[in-house]
Amino acid sequence: MDALLAQVFTGISAGAVLLLIALGLTLTFGQMGVINMAHGEFIMAGAYTAYVVSTIVASTELSLLIALPVGFVIGGLLGLALEASVLRWMYARPLDTLLVTYGVGLILQQVARDIFGAPAKEVPAPGWLDGSIPILGYDFPLTRLFIIVLAGLCVAALLAVLRFTALGRQIRATVGNRDLAETIGISTRRTDRATFFIGSGLAGVAGVALTLLGSTGPNLGTSYIVQAFLVVVVGGIGHLKGTIVAALGIGLLQAFLAHALTGSVAQVIVFLAIVAFLQLRPQGILSVRTRSLA
Amino acid sequence: MRTKFSSRLLAASSVLALGMTATACGGAKTGDTATSESCVDTSGDTIKIGFLNSLSGTMAISETTVFKSLSMAAEEINADGGVLGKKLEIVSEDGQSEPTVFAEKATKLIQDDCVAAVFGGWTSSSRKAMLPVFEGNDALLFYPVQYEGLESSHNIFYTGATTNQQIIPALDFLKQEKKIESIFLVGSDYVFPRTANKIIKQYAAANGIEVLGEEYQPLGSTDFGTVVDKVKAAGADAVFNTLNGDSNVAFFKEYKGKGLTASAMPVLSVSIAEEEVPGVGVGNLEGQYTAWNYYQTIDSPANQKFVTDFKAANGAKAVTSDPMEAAYTSLHLWKGMVEKADSFEVEDVIDASDGVTYDAPEGTVEVDGENHHIAKTALIGQVNSEGLIDTVWSSDKPIEPDPYLKSYDWWKN
What we know:
heterodimer; A: mainly alpha; ABC transporter involved in vitamin B12 uptake, BtuC; 72% helix; B: Rossmann fold; 2 domains; five-stranded parallel β-sheet; Peripla_BP_I (chain B); Urea transport system substrate-binding protein (chain B)
């Protein structure tokens, strides 16, 4: 029972990480259909933002909380720059986008290496996230709990923006039918930029949060980008709820398999399960009709 | 340079006397003692050597430091008059963290640049990829990193530890000093941890230590929730950690987050050196153990000079680590071999290698001419609050290299 409970918690927290890294991608890939391979590097930029903030803000207790909004803005601005300089010319050419953004990702990695050096940086965790709290007899690390809460807040905020704000309605209208949205006076260019800003900003937030779990180095993004795309594809392209279900599902599956077998074998089986699942249901868990790739 | 070469050849009669393969690249052999189509130019007042390290890609974090210490050794040797009166001329290539690139660049260094020896490589896969290149061209590689043993190439000198100079002493330490009765194995999923754990399990079986678990995560994995749950549930006396790279960060953060401590369940790591400690976080590592043959804190004149010089060249914050020291030592050992052979010719250098010693920062090391490894003293260290590593246990004297573990009767490959 204890082992079972431990794996449920571990699975949920792994799922929350997947959700955080994939959330921004549900907007840029899911909603806009842009295959942005540099999304991982936006995550990395968020992590380095946390590092820079921690060197400027003396209080380690506060630096993480300050880094979260700053990371959002940095990630968002990088996204805006990418959109304005490159992607806006390539909306109809997904394969070119893939290659170009991959290249941009490599450039960003090298820039990070030049600025911060190749060795990983440590971002000190605030004292109030030190240690663990017992939940049903399981010592739950506070950092993991924080990430679950943060993922929940990000999802709630994103849902609120999409549902209750003018911008959200414009995004949904543009995704649903771009031509029709234009005829009723929505500036789809502006909407594209805003969507990309939010999606990339969420990558920045994920990066800040990931400093609690792993190292902050130039290659941070590459280890997460494939998982992020997997979650979005399994969840159903363009469907936020599907992404949530997929992230938690993959997290739990991975946790239980890793417990029963070993980490490496678990990863292989998870990949096989995803391939098999997509054979049965190519559109993912949930799906909506969009102007995306499919 | 190769066209000038034949005219210089006549003048360089001393070179012929040494039995060098005095030909240009791809040219016909001259001299009966030539054993390969080496094109090394020994006629001038410089001699070329190659540095082959990953200066980009995922391994750049580690290999850049090796490149820096190799460069420092070369500068030292040049300031001291060079090797056999010839200044070293460095040809540096980037292995790009890709084994195939290592093989290509090694071929280039040997065949196009005509270097006398190559220094570098880090991952076992890069070494395995380069091995046929060096054997096929009868060239020399100096490999500076501790590795999984079970290899001994005629054309490679291994200046890092083999398993009986690092892993087995680490187990001796855990058994004799920490009195452990059970152990948990955590590693990245590739050749080094798998081989290391095979050795550990046989050692444990022969010494009455119970192995309570063996977990592998894919290289680069940062998800250690489940692994640490298993470690905690198993409750072993110690954890033997063969994780590599970024995985260590995630592992130790998770370890501390789940309330596990160095005093209750110490972790002994074989891939965390001074360079990696800041990335993992001193707070996450303090009190944990490492197994190496060199630490920056070693108190000896040779090491003080090494550390001072390295900081002078690379900034006060720069730290020195075992692979860097082994690389630095490898260049000095090659110099010793060449001077003993009085020749840059590969076979002469190999013939002269046995018994060559160097007063390295880690202490005096000696080359074993038979298996091409070097005798090294094993040191168990403990991470201190400044992020450096203090020696807490030592094998007291250099351990003879035994890459195939022939002298351990419990070992069955």
